[in-house]
Write a structure and sequence with these properties.
Blueprint: E1 17-20, H1 22-30, H2 34-43, E2 48-52, H3 53-67, H4 71-83, E3 85-88, H5 104-113, E4 117-119, H6 123-126, E5 130-131, E6 134-137, H7 139-145
Parallel strand pairs: 1-2, 1-4, 2-3, 4-6
Antiparallel strand pairs: 5-6
């Protein structure tokens, strides 16, 4: 069994593992709906959230730059994610998303973390539907079919 982030709560090897795109974390923080429910359930242990440093940095930067979120609050939100997630350090660099190479970090994290799902609202990512056996789904699809 692996342990999540900094917590002492062990993860079951049979649990669903999902990489949540930055837009899912941001939407969950500001609005109710599928992204909120996914993050709530993931933080509660219903499935394993798989993240990387690159995703965490993007979440913090988006909160501060785009939403004028105070830096200390963005840091606190990131710490909650880290503490309740499986942190991955992808060694493999992928060139998957030609139109938006910054999205490659999502696929790199999913492959390195052995994720079952990538959950995103980004059309560039959703265009793949499936990548190396990983289902690429919207938040609504993830709630409907995986949880």
């Amino acid at each position: 069994m692996q342990k999540r982030g900094g917590s002492q709560k062990p993860m079951s090897s049979g649990m669903i593992k999902a990489v949540l795109d930055t837009n899912v974390f941001i939407s969950a923080l500001f609005w109710k709906g599928a992204p909120y429910e996914i993050v709530r359930r993931g933080l509660g242990g219903a499935f394993v959230i798989v993240v990387s440093d690159a995703i965490i940095v993007e979440v913090k930067n988006t909160l501060v730059r785009k939403f004028n979120f105070p830096a200390h609050d963005a840091e606190a939100f990131s710490e909650i994610i880290i503490f309740n997630s499986m942190m991955i350090k992808p060694a493999l660099r992928l060139d998957v998303v030609d139109i938006d190479p910054s999205d490659n970090k999502i696929f790199e994290c999913a492959v390195a973390g052995g994720a079952n799902y990538i959950v995103s609202g980004d059309k560039h990512i959703l265009g793949f539907r499936r990548y190396r056996g990983i289902e690429v789904v919207t938040p609504n699809q993830f709630l409907r079919y995986a949880l």
